[in-house]
Design goal:
- A hairpin with a 6-residue loop joins strand 14 and strand 15.
- The protein has four domains: about 35 residues, no CATH class; about 140 residues, Alpha-D-Glucose-1,6-Bisphosphate, Chain A, domain 3; about 200 residues, Alpha-D-Glucose-1,6-Bisphosphate, subunit A, domain 3 (Alpha-D-Glucose-1,6-Bisphosphate, Chain A, domain 3), CATH 3.40.120; about 90 residues, TATA-Binding Protein.
- Helices cover about 35% and strands about 20% of the residues.
- The chain contains 16 helices and 24 strands.
- By secondary structure, the chain is an alpha/beta fold.
């Protein structure tokens, strides 16, 4: 499959069943690799086809390169999900780390936030986690973390890429070789979580909770925590099994939650980072509705800064102010939101996709802690999820995606900036134009040749019109020379007069 806007040079051969990313320029034949990509990293880490791109040989070099970015003797936490392919990739990476003089601390099969916790609490220098991609079972994702358990920044990614491509990484002498040690951080993680919530309040409430684990590693960690909290739990899809994961909450999960009269129902993402809630009537909440409920319950007693992407609906920022907090918009990449949450005074952050950060607890997207905290707030307020949802403001939220070649992205931004220079703007993530009763946002996708247009206004028809209008402006700006049409006409007039 050849992505839209791709350029394939003369003489290049592409074998069947290969994938070319949209907007790519292919200079070499694609025979063994499954796809042609612009770089190794995306907003969510590094990914590739299992045993085609992420081969044991490549992963060993990757581990050596990652180890070489750190001093000799550095301790690196290494975790994985339960897939056989993840185990193969992890072990190959570990061999590379040891060859570079690093010490690999193997924490085996864990949810991603527990690996991040083990990295920080164990005072390690870095960490990584290997998972099968939730979107494509043929692919695997590799997350790299710094000593604080945060995803490494762009500078560290570029350094790792350069070392890997040049193969300019050190090989430790036989007497400097690293080692492999093993750790079980589950108990320490559970103790830390339980110490951060009001256990007695949750126990006294006597909740009935339905949890759809979707066969993830969270099913090996969360049941013990819920037992300590005295929660009556109805588990679905517990245990570990290889295979496709759900893209959303299955209809039967919501139906079962309503049938068993659960006070709260939820589904955890395969990585254990994101959560989708189901209220006591069986209604599935959107990520924004969940965020709104957490804000309304948490900020009234703990006012502070709330972080979320610039594309977050306008009613969220209004709700934050009404609850005595301060709303701050961030770029849309989850890793950027997470790093921004380290700002002093931040009490809650969201990536807009069901991932929530509680900075006072731990800087990570942790669905298990979010669930425990939600149960605590539900017990303290005495308000059901359906009642809290009914109290939330509502507005139109319209989105669209417009293709834009990589080389035209900068031109589009310049044209839009010039055409809106006299209007109220926010440039945190793309161009946000404030209009009556809301905003319209035009932001470039960091991983794809595309622009996303978001309108958050009071009226659905107005939102549709705004999205259509700005999609048209993006298309027209791609064809120009980087100047606003009025400026271009003025320059042409000056040229003609000369």
């Amino acid at each position: 499959m050849v992505g839209r806007g791709s350029v394939i040079r003369a003489g290049v051969k592409i074998w069947p069943h290969k994938e070319i990313e949209p907007g790519s320029t292919v200079n070499e034949s694609v025979i063994w690799a499954g796809e042609w990509r612009r770089g190794l990293f995306s907003s969510y880490g590094m990914g590739g086809l299992i045993n085609v791109e992420l081969t044991p040989e490549f992963c060993a070099r990757l581990g050596a390169a990652f180890g070489a970015t750190l001093p000799k003797g550095s301790r690196i936490v290494v975790g994985q999900d339960h897939a056989r392919s993840s185990r193969m990739i992890k072990r190959a990476i570990v061999s590379g780390i040891v060859s570079a003089g690093g010490k690999a601390r193997d924490v085996r099969e864990l949810p991603v936030p527990v690996t991040q916790f083990a990295t920080k609490s164990g005072r390690c220098d870095a960490g990584l986690h290997v998972i099968v991609s939730p979107l494509d079972q043929r692919s695997a994702d590799i997350r790299f973390f710094d000593g604080d358990g945060l995803q490494i920044d762009k500078r560290a990614e570029r350094r790792l890429e350069n070392l890997l491509f040049r193969e300019d990484f050190r090989r430790a002498a036989f007497y400097e070789m690293g080692d492999i040690e093993y750790d079980e951080p589950n108990l320490e993680y559970a103790e830390h979580l339980l110490a951060s919530v009001d256990v007695d309040a949750i126990r006294d409430a006597g909740f009935r909770l339905l949890v759809d684990y979707d066969y993830s590693e969270a099913s090996t960690v969360l049941p013990g925590i819920l037992n300590e909290l005295g929660v009556t739990t109805i588990p679905l899809n517990a245990g570990l099994r290889e295979g496709p994961h759900h893209r959303g909450v299955p209809e039967e999960t919501a139906l079962i939650s309503r049938t068993v009269r659960a006070d709260v129902g939820c589904m955890l993402s395969p990585t254990g980072e994101r959560i989708t809630l189901i209220d006591d009537t069986g209604e599935v909440l959107t990520a924004h509705q969940t965020f709104g409920i957490l804000i309304s319950w948490w900020l009234r007693s703990h006012p502070g800064i709330v972080l979320a992407p610039a594309a977050t609906p306008d009613w969220i920022s209004t709700l934050v102010r009404e609850c005595g907090g301060t709303f701050t918009a961030t770029p849309g990449e989850p890793a950027t939101v997470l790093r921004s949450s380290a700002v002093p005074g931040t009490c809650l952050a969201s990536d807009g996709e069901g991932g929530f950060v509680w900075p006072y607890y731990f800087a990570a997207y942790d669905a298990m802690y979010t669930l425990a905290k939600l149960l605590e707030l539900r017990a303290i307020t005495g308000v059901s999820l359906s009642e809290a949802r009914a109290l939330l403001p509502s507005s139109a939220y319209v989105t669209a995606t417009e293709f834009c070649p990589w080389e035209a992205k900068g031109r589009v931004m310049r044209v839009l900036l010039d055409s809106h220079r006299d209007q109220a703007l926010d440039l945190v993530d793309g161009i946000k134009v404030f209009v009556a009763d809301g905003f319209v946002l035009v932001r470039p996708d960091p991983d794809e040749p595309a622009y996303h247009i978001v309108a958050s206004v009071a009226d659905e028809a107005q939102g549709q019109n705004l999205v259509s209008e700005y999609a048209r402006q993006v298309r027209e700006a791609q064809q120009g020379n980087g100047l606003h049409p009025a400026v271009e006409s003025a320059l042409q007039g000056e040229t003609a007069s000369q």
